[in-house]
Amino acid sequence: xxxxKEWDASAVAGEGLPLxxxxxxxxxxxxVLIRDTSLTIPAGKITVIVGASGAGxxxxxxxxxxxxxxxxxxxxxxxxxxxxxxxxxQNRRNGLLTRVGIVFQQFALxxxxxxxxxxxxxxxxxSDPSAPPSQSARxxxxxxxxxxxxxxxxxxxxxxxxxxxxxTLAAAPDVxxxxxxxxxxxSASGRKVAELIRHTQTIHRTTSIVVxxxxxxxxxxxxxxxxxDSQTSRLIRIEQxxxxxxxxxxxxVALADNTSDDDxxxxxxxxxxxxxxxxxxxxxxxxSAIWTAMALPFELRPYFPxxxxxxxxxxHYLRLVGGPSAWFYLILAGMIIGFTSTYFTFEFxxxxxxxxPLLIDExxxxxxxxxxxxxxxxxxxxxxxxxxGAAVAADVGVKRxxxxxxxxxxxxxxxxxxxxxxxxxxxxxxxxxxxxxxxSAAKLISLVTFLSTHPNEGPYFWQQNFYRNLAAIDGxxxxxxxxxxxxxxxxxxxxxxxxxxxxxxxxxxxxxxSGAITSTVLWTTLYVLIVHFVTAxxxx
Length: 540
Ligand SMILES: Nc1ncnc2c1ncn2[C@@H]1O[C@H](COP(=O)(O)OP(=O)(O)OP(=O)(O)O)[C@@H](O)[C@H]1O
Description:
Low-confidence stretches: 1-14
Radius of gyration: 30 Å
Order of helices and strands: HEEEHEHEHHHEHEHEEHHHHHHHHHH
Oligomer: single chain
Bound molecules: adenosine-5'-triphosphate
Structural class: alpha/beta
Number of helices: 18
């Protein structure tokens, strides 16, 4: 059947939207996974795409879901993917705001939200916000049989999968993709999942594409079958009378010819290439983080698609960055620096008996100045960089690795609106607050130390001299507060950006998450030191 005829047949069906591939080609590095493929996936039906392990089914699905850029270094694609009409203007005129939803193999649920919260998030970000939602979040979880009051992490694998389907459907996608929905399930559970897919498709009539190598479980619910042929790298439609030949036509993917490790020269060149790749990756991730951080003020608008969800993310990151465990660190650091600066200044004064009476007020004034303008700001921001930067990089890194960032994107949400903006807001609020706590602790311990080492002097003496170099002329804020606040905010903003971009960089394994945390600690502390060094040159 010609493409146009297929298209007409789909349009006549009038249910869901067809998806059309035109000259689609996908390659991973030098290997072509899909070559010049043009076909139409019919509207309102279940199309099962089968293929051997490693043939490229998941990469195809991610391409269809709009999760892969055309010119990505690792995976690139050419051609067009059209949902509904060819002409996007025509789509818009017909009120079509196309959306592809995906039920991820690892579910990619938002762990910090309840099951109903996950679905409500999808409803609030549905493809057409002007149309009323088809049903409430509670109705969705009830329909799919998910316990509403159990936390997401405590749900069983099957319940998580049903919740993932409910969340995806609640966003009213035009095309619904399932990535290996039966992987890791026994045959009875696999059959149940297949029935669930058929059941939801019968009720909601969404165009559904199921990608699997478990064709035996999923063929019974298929309306159409496409084979991703690893020999020819083409998607081939298999007519129903040939479905029994699938097992013979599904050829295993030919493994790349690995050159023997025995040759030391080859081994060496591979190690060199790997090492160079690692160094490249490191500087690319860091360089792009710095570059994007510089461009950020121009891109970042204080805009949340939904204020309520935006505030929820802000509170989440405020707890992470400025919560009680951070208070403990910063207060302890303030106490240590307040004690050491006061105690050792007087303890190691040469010719104490003579010099101390002459210098005591000057020394106290210097301690006050140094603590307020330099020591506490440097120490506090380094600790914030290491502790809070690492916490945020871990949070975003896990969201990236666990697929939640992809889930946000398929729900039409740019990660920077619900992740980056809240992270920046959290750091801009929490960094001055934490530094103030650290300074308060330093001052208190300095006073206590001074009183215990100089019992003849009272707190009034300490106070008068400690603030002598800092007293503002009009008696309001301490002198130089603008510098302290400026350094503090520049540090907070930069730490937020570095942690976010390190966390957001692609993650193939848990190792990559820990790599992002380490890089964040390294780069944020270096960044903070540079900020203090540069501002000190200007400030003093
Ligand atoms: N991000 C990536 N970077 C580099 N190569 C990748 C990436 N993702 C996938 N690949 C490669 O693309 C090929 C196809 O992978 P894909 O995961 O799509 O296979 P699949 O058909 O889904 O296999 P399975 O059924 O085992 O999940 C594999 O060789 C894989 O190593």
